[in-house]
UniProtKB/TrEMBL annotation, chain C:
Main location: membrane
Protein name: Phosphate transport system permease protein PstA
Classification of source organism: Bacteria, Pseudomonadati, Pseudomonadota, Alphaproteobacteria, Hyphomicrobiales
CC annotations in GO: plasma membrane
PANTHER family, per database record: PHOSPHATE TRANSPORT SYSTEM PERMEASE PROTEIN PSTA, PHOSPHATE TRANSPORT SYSTEM PERMEASE PROTEIN PSTA-RELATED
Species name: Phyllobacterium trifolii
Coiled-coil portions: 207-256
């Protein structure tokens, strides 16, 4: 554990000069809501086992792009996606791909904590159950415990696993949602402004958690807060008006952005 | 027979569900995640494969079987006795009672042979049907069983089926309308082959009694709906005259003046009134209101019919008050607060705001509420059946007895009827007119409401 | 402070503008008053309906029974001494009961009188006796007290619906003189003077009423021609003649008045017997016996009484003789009023006192069961499809418009559908709960679809997204998460829909659920009726007792509706979730 975190620190301090392996690739992705176009040919690589932050002013298309990555946009009937998105070099919009299995590999955490109005245990157990990951009752308990532990929630809730998940505080709820997402052992976790509904202390906890999760998962996070992007991510993509303005290592972006718009945005001149 | 068939169906379905689930589990072995779909979906898939062909075979097979059985039974009988529908069903009844052993009197030899032919044909066909059903189901299930494997997307197949089932559920609603249209249209067309549509629409006399047999003495019937139209209109006008102002003022008060406390008291009152079955209101109209109106009318020297249009209309008006008030309440509440604020800011009083701003803004909604109320009043049956008369008087005097569409439909169709007589068919023609009148009224009203809501959303 | 206010204020003089403001406020108050008046009127109407039904219906929940001492005679019940239930069921219990009743009235000897006496009893009077004995054969040969049901007329009389009764206790000593069959009764007090005045007052009243009626008819006659006028004129003449005779009868304050059956009946109870007055004068009455007094001794003050039955005998179903018998039975304490359990345990009957709502209740249960089984899954299925799966296209729009319209189609039209489709086309059995349930299911399905869609829509999309986010399929998200959360709303809508179905009458008339059915239906294909239809059927019957039964059945129906609606409200309150 100690070793690993040292490696982490190293990685953060001295990013590898060569590009790390891309877990997901978006190529020329455009999204239309009816006649309205929301994304204009966006291309972005998501490196493996890193946190990629998507930043930009509201309505810039960052959430839309995020929702393309696990095909959540499918649930909106007027939404149309063109271009190419791959996961491990496989097109996820391929009609042969089962969207349900795809989402099991790419988990998602939403802006507002949305636990099911069921017990904490059931919240976490739901995913493994529907995906048939459970051998028996004991195994399920194990998965739930491990997931809650990874989400740093277990010690707080271990005595009330069978109480309703909606009774937790906002920050705990959001960590429960993260536990729920990792319970199905996804490879990628998408987070859509996961801290926007939380207070600063809860936010700090979730950010800490994100940093720990990076060790095992590829994470894409949409965030409104520049500081958050700087704190948790290794790579940052700046969106504006449905286009990517700039992509790069977070440190580089925040210290020496090449684009003027990025600079304006991170210094708070617009957004 | 039917019971046995469906019992076997249920049994096979359950057992193959278990088989499928077990098979999938054992394929997966220690690693349940290696399956695409959960084992229970594989089970459900097999169960559906059993169910569908068996049901299909029954739906197709049972009527065929019945026809075959009847043909076999009738083959030995005198063709004269089975020349028409009536005779055939009489013979079938006899055969059934012979088979059940409770035939009154001694059966003729022909009947006995027919009965034995019937029973043997029945048992042959039921066995055939059963075997065919099971065979088809097993073939389908074997086919499905071979599909089970880690890659097989059982969930997707099951979900596709579920989706079709849900679609079928919502199709029922459409089928109901189609059914209504067909039931009234066919009979109405038949009716118009006996009665001239012009006489029907513009005739001033309604007396549907027709001679049942050709040699019977009796009137040939008169089928002019004008008296029914005026009668229905009269009662509806009275009802709306009561419910319109009362319902509207109640709604205005509830929406604009009432405190939440008052609302919480008055709303249940209106809901209770709305929930009272019309047969209860009919009883009240016929036994309390009508004698009261007659008594008070006579005490001031008026002659009042004991089944006056006034009694039925008044009570019907009371019945639709909650209807008018709740619909109007909704539309008044939908008027945006900004309109009210604008009016108040200019120093208008509440009633001025309501009269000059809110009501004009809510007018389309209120109009549609009235239209729906009219359609409700026109289609209401029990109050008029119990409190209004049968006599088709062409009058606008609310103290006289009048009759309505619904009363006539009920009167003609309740009790024994000759199916093809003009009298019976006329009820369907009345139903046709009633259905399309209310349909058009409802359609227009609902469209107005929809547009109104879109305007303020 | 005051100074500043007055200098800066709008002038308070009576300007025309001020008058206008007053006028506007008056209009405001008037307008508000209209609103209150509308609500008050509506509430008033509702309470009048409910109270009317309540007052009419309450008496039907009780019935008068006669506790009769009988001997379960072996010869009449089981002459072969088999002790067998079938034999015992077929025994002649009626004769035992009738004989026991006749034994209480030794005066009753003629055939006609006996028939009249038996008329006090219900045709089902022996039912309880029969049940007692057949359930317990050891009772044969024993002396028993059995409850015997009275006829509807007797019941109505005892409940006071046939006539008002006035009892005057005798204040003087009553002497009776027997002259052949005729009794002459004289009191030492002014008892008969009071009774005489009552009769006179009654006659005046009637004269008054005749005069108004004559005046009304004459007014109607003005300007009338033809046959109708002719018959009316005849009516007027009859009334006039009647008024003449009445006038003659009451011209003299002291002449004796003949009491015919168009006048109130005066019955004098003395020494355990009853004399019916045929002629009254202030001094006393002449009359005939209805029950022979036990002695001819003078009766002391307070021991005798005059009973006036105000409604004239010709307007009553219970004649004076029968009334006297009933009064005597009542006085002997063998008549008791009890809860009419029969109302809930028996089926329909032509005899009001035997008719019950059990058949209709069971029929309702079967019908609603069919309705629920059909319309709940279909309605919810349709709602899920339309809310979650339906593509937004023309077809969906048509389905939606169609459902909204269907909710407003008159219910009788659904009856036509049932008649033409289910009965005539599919050949399903008439009058059966199966068909009734089918028709009602189609009738309430739009309600359930609309309520279910609203319930599904009220579940926040974030729940569905959460499920989709962990890789649930669309259907898993709906069936595992959205539907359970929408269930309280769906159930509320369903209960309201079922309450609607419970009160529905018209479509069931069309499919023949109006037949007179005595048997309790045993399944969904047996001929049966339902509660609202039973109410309709009873309300049409001429017997007065059925009016009370109708109102009582309505009360039962309203209780059911009340319970269902209360359940719906509780469900809504309890599970309502604000997201």
């Amino acid at each position: 554990m100690n070793m690993l975190s040292e490696v982490d620190v190293e990685k953060k301090l001295y990013p590898a000069p060569d590009q790390p392996k891309a877990k997901m690739k978006g190529d020329n992705v455009s999204v239309f809501y009816g006649a309205k176009q929301a994304l204009f040919g966006v291309s972005l690589d998501v490196p493996e086992k890193m946190v990629t932050a998507l930043i930009g002013p509201s309505g810039c298309g960052k959430s839309t792009f995020l929702r393309c990555l696990n095909r959540m946009n499918d649930t909106i009937s007027i939404c149309r996606v063109t271009g190419n998105i791959t996961l491990d070099n496989r097109d996820i919009y391929d009609p042969k791909i089962d969207v349900v299995q795809l989402r099991a590999r790419i988990g998602m955490v939403f802006q507002k904590p949305n636990p099911f109005p069921k017990s904490i245990f059931e919240n976490v157990a739901y995913g493994p159950r529907i995906h048939g990951l459970v051998k028996d009752k004991h195994h399920l308990d194990e998965i739930v415990e491990k997931s809650l532990q990874r989400a740093g929630l277990f010690t707080e809730v271990k005595d009330r696993l069978h109480e309703s998940g909606t009774g937790l505080s906002g920050g705990q709820q959001q960590r429960l949602c993260i536990a729920r997402a990792i319970a199905v052992s996804p490879e990628v976790i998408l987070m859509d402004e996961p801290c926007s509904a939380l207070d600063p202390i809860a936010t700090a906890k979730v950010e800490e958690l994100i940093d720990e999760l990076r060790e095992n998962y590829t994470i894409v996070i949409v965030t409104h807060s520049m500081q958050q992007a700087a704190r948790v991510s290794q790579r940052t993509a700046m969106f504006h008006l449905g286009n990517i303005v700039e992509v790069g290592d977070t440190e580089m972006m925040f210290t020496s952005p090449t684009e003027k718009r990025t600079q304006d945005y991170i210094t708070g001149r617009f957004g | 027979m039917t019971t046995a068939y469906f019992l076997i169906l249920a049994l096979l379905t359950v057992s193959w569900f278990l088989v499928g689930r077990q098979r999938a589990s054992s394929i997966a072995g220690a690693d349940p995640a290696s399956l695409h779909s959960l084992p229970s979906y594989h089970g459900l898939f097999l169960a559906a494969l059993i169910c569908l062909p068996m049901i299909l075979i029954f739906i197709v097979g049972a009527p065929l079987a019945e026809r075959y059985i009847e043909a076999r039974a009738f083959s030995g009988l005198d063709p004269a006795t089975i020349s028409d529908e009536l005779g055939r069903s009489a013979v079938l009844r006899d055969i059934q009672s012979v088979l059940a052993g409770n035939y009154a009197g001694t059966a003729t030899p022909e009947l006995t042979t027919a009965a034995s032919a019937y029973s043997s044909a029945a048992s042959i066909t039921s066995w055939l049907l059963l075997i065919a059903g099971i065979a088809a189901a097993l073939v389908a299930a074997m086919f499905g069983f071979r599909l089970i494997g880690p890659e097989f997307r059982a969930r997707n197949s099951v979900e596709r089926l579920v989706k079709y089932i849900l679609l079928a559920c919502s199709a029922i609603a459409v089928l109901t309308t189609v059914g209504i249209v067909f039931s009234v249209v066919f009979e109405t067309i038949q009716f118009f082959s006996k009665v001239n549509p012009i006489d029907f629409l513009f005739g001033l006399q309604w007396s549907p009694q027709t001679a049942i047999r050709a040699d019977q003495v009796g009137s040939s019937g008169a089928f002019g709906i004008v008296p029914l139209v005026t009668g229905t209109l009269l009662i509806t006008v009275i009802a709306i005259a009561v419910a319109g102002p009362l319902g509207l003022f109640a709604a205005i008060y509830m929406a604009e003046y009432a405190s939440p406390r008052t609302r919480s008291i008055v709303k249940p009152i209106l809901e209770i009134l709305a929930g009272i079955p019309t047969v209860v209101l009919g009883f009240f109209a016929a036994l309390t209101v009508a004698p009261f109106i007659r008594g008070s009318g006579e005490s001031i020297g008026l002659s009042v019919s004991s089944e006056s249009a006034l009694a039925a209309g008044l009570v019907m008006g009371m019945m639709i008050i909650p209807f008018v008030s709740s619909l109007s309440d909704d539309v008044i509440n939908a008027v945006p607060q900004s309109l009210r604020d604008g009016s108040y800011a200019m120093g208008a009083t509440k009633s001025e705001t309501i009269k000059k701003v809110i009501l004009p803004a809510a007018l389309p909604g209120i109009v549609s509420a009235f239209m729906l109320a009219i359609s409700r009043a026109v289609g209401e049956t029990m109050i008029v059946v119990m409190a209004a008369g049968l006599a088709a008087n062409l009058t606008f005097n609310p103290l006289e007895a009048v009759t309505t569409f619904t009363v006539q439909i009920k009167t003609i169709l309740v009790g024994d009827q000759e199916f093809d007589s003009a009298k019976t068919l006329s009820a369907f023609a009345l139903g046709f007119v009633l259905f399309f009148f209310t349909l058009v009224l409802n359609f227009i009203a609902l469209q107005i409401v929809k547009r109104y809501r879109e305007q303020y959303d | 402070m005051t100074d500043i206010a007055s200098t800066n204020d709008i002038p308070v003089t009576d300007t025309p503008r001020d008058a206008l403001v007053k006028k506007r406020y008056r209009a405001e108050r008037r307008f508000k008053f209209y609103g209150i008046a509308a609500i008050v009127l509506t509430a008033l109407f509702l309470s009048v309906v409910l109270l009317d039904v309540l007052f009419k219906g309450i008496p039907a929940f009780s019935e008068y029974r006669l506790d009769l001492k009988v001997v379960a005679d072996q010869a009449l019940l089981d002459p072969q001494k088999t002790g067998d239930r079938t034999t015992l069921l077929a025994g002649n219990y009626d004769k035992i009961i009738r004989d026991a009743l006749a034994a209480q009235f030794p005066d009753v000897t003629t055939r006609a009188d006996r028939r009249a006496l038996n008329g006090l009893l219900s045709s089902g009077a022996a039912d309880d006796f029969r049940r007692m004995v057949s359930n317990n054969p050891s009772l044969v040969g024993q002396e028993l007290t059995v409850p015997v049901l009275l006829s509807d007329d007797a019941d109505q009389f005892l409940k006071g619906y046939q006539t008002n009764e006035i009892v005057l206790k005798g204040t003087g000593t009553l002497t009776q003189t027997l002259n052949g069959d005729a009794y002459a009764l004289r009191s030492s007090g002014d008892d008969f003077g009071k009774a005489f005045q009552e009769i006179q007052a009654f006659l005046f009243q009637r004269l008054d009423r005749l005069h108004t009626e004559i005046a009304r008819l004459e007014k109607t006659l003005q300007g009338m021609e033809g046959d109708a006028a002719e018959s009316l004129r005849g009516q007027v003449d009859t009334y006039k003649a009647e008024a003449e005779t009445l006038n003659a009868r009451i011209s003299d304050a002291n002449t004796a008045i003949e009491l015919d059956d168009k006048l109130p009946s005066l019955l004098v109870n003395v020494n355990g017997g009853t004399i019916k007055a045929t002629q009254i004068s202030p001094a006393g009455v002449d009359g005939t016996k209805l029950i022979t007094p036990k002695s001819a001794e003078p009766a002391s003050p307070g021991s005798w009484s005059i009973l006036t039955l105000v409604t004239p005998e010709s307007n009553r179903r219970v004649q004076d003789q029968a009334a006297t018998w009933l009064e005597q039975l009542k006085a002997s304490g063998t008549i008791e009023r009890g809860f009419a359990t029969r109302f809930f345990t028996s089926g329909d009957s032509r005899e009001p006192e035997l008719a019950g709502i059990r058949g209709a209740l069971i029929g309702t249960l079967w019908t609603l069961a069919v309705t629920l089984i059909l319309c709940l899954p279909l309605g919810v299925g349709a709602a899920i499809y339309l809310e979650e799966f339906a593509p937004k296209n023309r077809l969906t729009e048509v389905i939606e418009i169609n459902i909204n319209n269907l909710a407003a189609v008159p219910s009788i039209v659904f009856g036509l559908l049932g008649l033409a489709m289910f009965l005539n086309f599919f050949d399903l059995p008439r009058s059966a709960p199966l068909v009734g349930g089918l028709v009602l299911a189609l009738l309430v399905m739009p309600t359930i679809i609309i309520a279910s869609r609203a319930a599904l829509r009220s579940v926040p999309p974030s729940i569905k997204e959460a499920a989709l986010g962990v890789g649930a399929s669309h259907q898993q998200a709906i069936f595992h998460h959205v539907l359970p959360l929408a269930m309280p709303g769906i159930m509320t809508g369903t209960i309201i829909g079922m309450a609607h179905a419970l009160g529905e009458t018209a479509p069931l008339l069309m499919i023949g659920m109006v037949a007179f059915i005595v048997d309790i239906p045993g399944g969904i294909t047996d001929a049966s009726t339902v509660l609202p239809v039973q109410i309709y059927l009873w309300s049409d019957l001429p017997e007065v007792a059925f009016q009370a039964k109708t109102a009582a059945a309505i009360l039962v129906l309203l209780v059911f509706l009340f319970v269902m609606n209360a359940a719906a409200i509780m469900l809504r309150r309890r599970f309502e979730r604000r997201w």
